[in-house]
Amino acid sequence: MSMFKTVRGMRDFLPKDAENLRYVEQVTRELADLYGYEEILTPIVESHELLAAKSGEEIRQRMYVFKDLGGRKVALRPEFTASVARLVATKLRNAPKPLKLFSVGSLYRYDEPQYGRFREFWQANYELMGSEKPEADAEILTVTNHLLKKLGLRNYYIKIGHVGILRGILSQEDIVEQQQNHVMQMLDKKSWDEALTTIKQLGASQQCLTTLKKVFETRGKATFGILKKTEKTVQKYESAVAAVQNLRQILTLATTGNKFETLIEPGFARGLEYYTGIIFEAYVPELEIALGGGGRYDKLIEQFGGEPTPAVGVAPGIDRIVLAMKKQKNQFRIRTENRAVVIPVNAEMKIKAFEISSMLREVMIPTELEVTGRTVSKALSDADRREITYAVLVGPEELAEGKVVLRNLITRKQKTVEIKELVKKLKATK
Ligand code: HAM
User: How far, in Å, from the CA of 46 to the mean position of ligand 1?
Assistant: First the structure.
């Protein structure tokens, strides 16, 4: 039989990789708790119809779709939002609003594997449902900023747009939603010229084309200046003006008391089709790919048969956050507790070594037991390699006096200590 490999686009997480991923996951969960988002778990396998409904052409074509043994057409989830919206349309239909829901887990997209793009990847996901107010959008931006800051990322910025600007212009030009969706996919891929040609073919006016061209050219970090300029550019399009005003309200709230860099880009689009309001993505200068993305989607829950429920959310991409933290040489974990390894110096000492390691674990001192029967010096050099802080050497002479040798693997000093003193010594800081 040939040697097995992982399937293309799939990854194994060896201990260090797993530790990094779980560290970021843990911080996302801590933030969920801090902001009052309750965790839910939804299945990885959902009906294809649900996942395909509003995900947009791009993601639709990249779903893992198959028939299960019962003949149902199912897919592996490419994102969380559809599943959360399904819950709010069904089981949580009558739950008091606002609903603040958190999820974290693996997702599947048949993307072309490349740096930062995997077929199985991890997201955390925060959804705030039941408020159409700008403070809800501002909260989601605040959570996003807080997460990146808490993980120690530097120089990150949040690229922000509003689908109401482009859709407002296109609607007033009588371009129907389906055609708008098609144009938005082109814009998501930054194919501005192709989008303009298509819009022209759809019968848009010269005024529309001039306006859009200007919108596409406008972007910058001076938030309120860019918004003012955009408002002027789109002044002939009433609902586009309202969208700019909505962005201004959101950003006034989000940037008061929080400092984060923004890049306002009114012509920016995202692949997902369900957005109705603000859209955004987070970046660091070291990576070209987004660390996370989100936006407002006020129609999805009713499209799934639920009550009309305005909603806004964000999904930080855990894998890419890990990549960004590595690029910036950030710390993934600060280990402050001592870790011990208990080493019997000969076979007769095994039972006592077992006993001592159990005693240490009882009081929650991370403790390993030497289980291979190798020599003390080999066991010590292995403990060094694994950055264990203390070795407890169990030998007959010390044991006869109720003692063991405690060796500090960092300072390399050792002394004989009473077994009953051991806990106190190991609980002390390094
Ligand atoms: P999204 O932009 O498709 O949005 O994905 C969010 C993040 O997931 C991306 O910014 C990226 O970090 C990560 N991601 C996406 N695809 C891959 C991949 N192939 N490999 C590695 N990471 C990836 C959503 O999924 C929306 N559901 C976000 C949202 C929540 N909108 C409202 N609520």
Answer: 18
